[in-house]
Amino acid sequence: MKKKWVPILLVFGLLLASPFSSQPVEATSHATAVKEDKLPANLAKLMTVAPEHQYTLRKGSTRIEVKLLQWTLNQYGLKTAVDGVFGAATDKNVRQYQKDKGLKVDGIVGVNTWVAIYAEHKKPTDPNRELPTELRNLMDIAPEHQFILREGSNRMEVLLLQWTLNQYGLKTAVDGVFGAETNRNVRQYQADKGLKVDGIVGVNTWVAIYGEHQ
């Protein structure tokens, strides 16, 4: 009887020692955890809502919009778990993002922060290429009817301004946020063009901006 049990015990021992018997689920989950570079369709759909009509998010929020926020922060370079829960880590990264963009650092994702978030997905990736269609379409509006832009402005038109400054040779982050860098470059542009140097993009500055694309 003892001899019959020896092969069975040997097989059982080999199974215990086999690497295939330890943590199979964890190994699989790590292998499939691949970072997505393209915004998922369900999150992209959320951006059909204008920034000013988006939900205001803050610590404690648990909505799908939080995933859009977290996904964008991740792509921006601030490592954030995309779990739809606005916790301490998300709050910390939102504050860092707001600081980077020259926004009010309060951890609350309101209109201005949403505009910046949207801009991360709409900005031209290469300012040296042809003006993107969505920015060129803004020029269907006559310069005298364009929005007046100044430091603190967060509009699609800021992207057009920044893209043009880049083309002109004044290196500017094309992020849709009219911050200190954009202000400095607008003033330099105005000085070069013989315009009033005030950092405000009004009719005369818009005429010059439009002229760059004629």
Please outline what is shown here.
It contains ten helices and no strands. By secondary structure, it is mainly α.
What's the N-to-C terminus distance? 97 Å
Largest sheet: none
Q: What structural class do you assign from the helix and strand content?
A: mainly alpha
Low-confidence stretches: 14-35
Q: How much of the residues is beta strand, in percent? A: under 5%
**Count of separate DSSP helical elements:** 10
What would you note in describing this structure?
The structure is a single chain. By secondary structure, the protein is mainly alpha-helical. Helix content is 50%, strand content 0%. Mean pLDDT is 81; it is low at 14-35.
Helices and strands in order, then pairings?
Blueprint: H1 2-17, H2 24-32, H3 41-44, H4 64-76, H5 88-100, H6 111-122, H7 133-136, H8 156-168, H9 180-192, H10 203-211
How would you describe this structure in keywords?
single chain, 214 residues, mainly alpha, 0% strand, elongated
